[in-house]
Amino acid sequence: MGTLGFWRLAQADPEWVAAVDPDGTEHRAGDLLARANRMVHGLRELGLQPGDGLCGLVPNGVDGLVLYLAALQAGWYYTPINWHLTGPEIGYIVADSEAKAFFVHPRFAEEGGRAAEAIDASRRFAFGEIPGFRPVGELVDAMPDTLPGDRTAGATMHYTSGTTGKPKGVRRRLSGLDPDDGAELMTFLLSLFGMTPGKPNAHLVTSPNYHTAVTQFGGTALHMGHTLVYMDKWDPEETLRLCERHRVTNSHLVPTHFKRLLALPDEVKGAYDLSSLRWMIHAAAPCPVPVKQAMLEWWGDCVYEYYAATEGGGTIATPEDWKAHPGTVGKAWPISELLIVDDELKPVPTGTPGTIYMKMMGVSFEYKGDRAKTEAGRLDDYFTVGDIGYLDDEGFLFLCDRKADMIISGGTNIYPAEIENEIMIHPKVADVAVFGVPDEEWGEQIKAVIEAAPGSTPGPELAQEILASLEGRLARMKWPKSVDFIAEMPREPNGKLLKRKLRDPYWEGHGRAI
């Protein structure tokens, strides 16, 4: 231990450009360190103790990075919140995480303001001016920029969408390590991909920082001494421009990005120097074999894939692995194990699909405040998120289907139950089922099938009225893209919805098996 970790690196080389904001502003490591230190001193004055939490509703960029770096050196849990959520959804996370401080960027002032009553007014802070919030300056300006004493490693606590509609915080036990040593341990994940520390390396942050993997890969790259280059909104040509401009070596992408990149005109694709790319890592959704093949042909052998969950454990496929086993999501990490079981929880033979269970040595987690949910996904010390797959005779994992009902659209997990609950409230709805249907660009899009209440006329007008009722209650990314009406919902006598019966016709000829 002893050469990696942002705080150590920043003290050794304060002039290193550690981050570049989406507007191109460069931030030196020494300045970032000073900001993170002042944040720790300020929040300690506010009364935060190790084990406490803070929430950030902030766009991609250094404001969120400062919160992350402060929490990780003071033993706090940092929860970055999805900025597509509505006020009540944000307020739920602030309250459920028991946050002792809530930070909001003016861009999200409206919904952040609606969430404000979830926390005492003295604990709300704005990066800018928001009515009802204290400016961050009140917290940090008078504070010293010296390294705080009693430093201890904190952690991020991401919220994963709950199948019952309410998200759950994935909370790990704090290690008690020195923050830099803890950060150095985190770099193990990127070393699995062969990634090397030090300059000149740059990591392109392509997706919103509230995703677990985005925080994990970006944060870890920073702890290895890589410069973080933030994108505000993803754009295919801008991605290529930034890769050339900052000599990007690594990034974290989803297959939707690949599809958009491949759709660029050939002269645009050929106009940028991408020779710096070394570890372009993707995950979060199944990648069609032809798409991955085309990316490897264009970018060369720098496209890596993995399969994992917020809860811990996973697989990795190098470019060579994938070419030898097209379609695989890889082999288990050295510190992870896979188990494929049938409905009776008995291991299945090689090549037979079953539920995927994983475990990771030395890592335990719980869904905050939900022991029952934590235990439900467990099998001895393995856990599952409910995905279906099989292992080949060399131990390579292939996904066949996803968690029965989960919709993965553009790399984001969307749970139908939450959407169904909101639609069911409408007086003209007798019954509703929500599921994913094929979408060329996003992988899946959200479809609602509705049984209209007696006396209501099914049709486009009613569909519009029902969707409009979701405004302010459900994030727009969760709204159904299309609504079909049905005379009677297929349910078993016990009330169980036969969703597959509804879903299958939409998938004919598409093969939902990946």
From TrEMBL:
Name of the molecule in the record: Long-chain acyl-CoA synthetase
Keywords: Ligase
Class of this enzyme: ligase
Membrane spanning stretches: none
Residues annotated as domain AMP-binding enzyme C-terminal: 418-496
Gene source species: Nonomuraea soli
InterPro entries per record: AMP-bd_C (IPR025110), AMP-bd_C_sf (IPR045851), AMP-binding_CS (IPR020845), AMP-dep_synth/lig_dom (IPR000873), ANL_N_sf (IPR042099)
Molecular-function GO term, any one: medium-chain fatty acid-CoA ligase activity
One Pfam family recorded for the sequence: AMP-binding_C
EC number, UniProt record: 6.2.1.3
Domain AMP-dependent synthetase/ligase: 7-364
Family the entry assigns: Belongs to the ATP-dependent AMP-binding enzyme family.
